[in-house]
Write a structure and sequence with these properties.
alpha+beta, 50s Ribosomal Protein L17, Chain: A, 3-stranded antiparallel sheet, 5 helices, 3 strands, globular
């Protein structure tokens, strides 16, 4: 039983887990939607939501705190210039996790898509055009 055991280990060392979560957070901020396994999506969601909450208040200190987490200037810039203002009126819940039906080929792991609740208009209209 896992009573009072917090966090996701994901079968990795602490340094690997930290690097993986940093890379996945950068990917989500850059692409606004990624496909991964369900446990990884559940592990990364709180980190991304805390970063978006940080980006709602654009100060130099908050930018430095976000850069300390992400270590990527382009991601920090998009986070504060695009995502922070987009979610300024929303009190929380910036990401959603959607389970995908098809399992992974190698180990049959559950796949999931993690995305922002509100996406950029260009990507949304492209998706509508592809369906027509």
């Amino acid at each position: 039983m896992r009573h009072r055991v917090a966090g996701f280990k994901l079968g990795r060392t602490a340094s690997h887990r930290k690097a993986m979560s940093r890379n996945m957070a950068n990917s989500i901020i850059e692409h606004e939607r990624i496909i991964t396994t369900l446990p990884k999506a559940k592990a990364i969601k709180p980190l991304v939501e805390k970063l978006v909450t940080l980006a709602k208040n654009d100060t130099q200190h908050n930018r430095r705190r976000a850069f300390a987490q992400l270590r990527d200037g382009a991601s920090v810039e998009k986070l504060f210039d695009v995502l922070g203002p987009r979610f300024a009126d929303r009190p929380g819940g910036y990401c959603r996790i959607l389970k995908l039906a098809k399992r992974r080929l190698g180990d049959a792991g559950e796949r999931a898509m993690i995305e922002f609740v509100e996406r950029t208009p260009e990507e949304t209209t492209d998706a509508v055009d592809d369906e027509a």
